[in-house]
Design goal:
Strand content: 25-35%
Number of helices: 8
Number of strands: 14
Structural class: alpha+beta
CATH class: Alpha Beta
Radius of gyration: 19 Å
CATH architecture: 2-Layer Sandwich
Largest sheet: 7 strands, antiparallel
CATH superfamily: ATP-grasp fold, B domain
Distance between the termini: 29 Å
Number of domains: 1
Order of helices and strands: EEEEEHEEEEHEEHHEEEHHHH
């Protein structure tokens, strides 16, 4: 097989003209930076979690690019083209839509940062103007955002921008939104059995040869999505049971603020430091635990 791409998390091989193989690595990235540390077992847990959700999606009538799982950390998927966004039209087919869809069900992460800074007002979240929004609040309805996919640093898009970049009709845009909400409903229903709360997550889509929408890449893992423990939340505690745990570590170390300042001022971005061994072990254990709680399957 031919290696055709290496991403932040996985390596991509071409099997044939219609099939790709994803090899999930133990690499980890935050803030669009690859950390110079490997997390044992991470790749396998993400691969198997993704395969689990692809099968759930398929059983609910949602088309996916998933073909087969090759244990322990590989899967084969339908191949699509990566087109230059400037060349995408409403007639293009068999291509990755260069967008990420972020669905939020609770106040957390960057949404909380933007609420505190006043960038996101309560009205945008379908709340009354004078509502005091607090971290961990359940949103009255899912809050969806579209960002760029193929740019160096993801940026938020308006609906008009997303439709233009993705070459989407209004109907196709709505189809993506409806598919995200359907999948998230199934995710919440499944993980509730194991006292997990699905806080937010990202999804990616493509069109096949007939321009039918299909969900691609990975979703519903400890990398793409945020999870909280139901019992802890009932006590007002919001322990991060996902890669967000690592993001919080770099925030506490002061790295995040330095990185954001460099990006705001156009200066050279600081290199991201490696994780200490104790943190690597902690995160590895977390990925294994979350695979079991997300899927209900035993890791070994």
């Amino acid at each position: 097989m031919k290696l055709i791409g290496q991403g932040k998390v996985k390596d991509v091989f071409e099997v044939d003209a219609h099939t790709l193989e994803f090899q999930f690595t133990d690499k980890i990235s935050v803030f669009d930076k690859i950390i110079p540390s490997l997390i044992p077992h991470k790749g396998e847990t993400l691969c198997r979690s993704s395969a689990f959700w692809f099968q759930v999606a398929r059983s609910n009538g949602i088309k996916t690019h998933f073909k087969e799982l090759i244990p322990p950390n590989m899967m084969r998927v339908q191949k699509v083209q990566i087109l230059d966004p400037s060349k995408i039209t409403k007639k293009s087919n068999n291509f990755l839509i260069p967008l990420e869809v972020i669905s939020r069900h609770y106040v957390a992460g960057s949404l909380w940062d933007r609420i505190k800074s006043g960038q996101v007002k309560p009205q945008r979240l379908k709340l009354k103007a004078n509502t005091e929004v607090k971290y961990g609040d359940k949103l009255p309805e899912p809050y969806l955002e579209f960002t760029t996919k193929l740019e160096k640093v993801d940026r938020l898009l308006t609906k008009t921008e997303a439709m233009k970049i993705g070459g989407l009709t209004a109907e196709e845009y709505k189809e993506i939104v409806d598919a995200v909400l359907t999948i998230d409903g199934k995710i919440a229903e499944e993980v509730e059995k194991r006292d997990l709360i699905h806080v937010d997550g990202k999804k990616e889509y493509a069109f096949d040869e007939d321009r039918e929408l299909m969900i691609v890449d990975t979703f519903g893992t400890a990398d793409e999505d945020r999870w909280w423990d139901w019992e802890s939340c009932s006590k007002g505690q919001f322990a991060e049971l996902s890669k967000e745990n690592v993001r919080q570590y770099y925030r506490q170390q002061g790295y995040y603020d330095k990185l954001m300042e460099a990006r705001r001022t156009g200066r050279q971005e600081p290199k991201i430091p490696a994780l200490p061994e104790t943190k690597i072990k902690e995160i590895s254990d977390l990925y294994i635990e979350m695979f079991e709680r997300i899927t209900g399957e035993s890791y070994r």
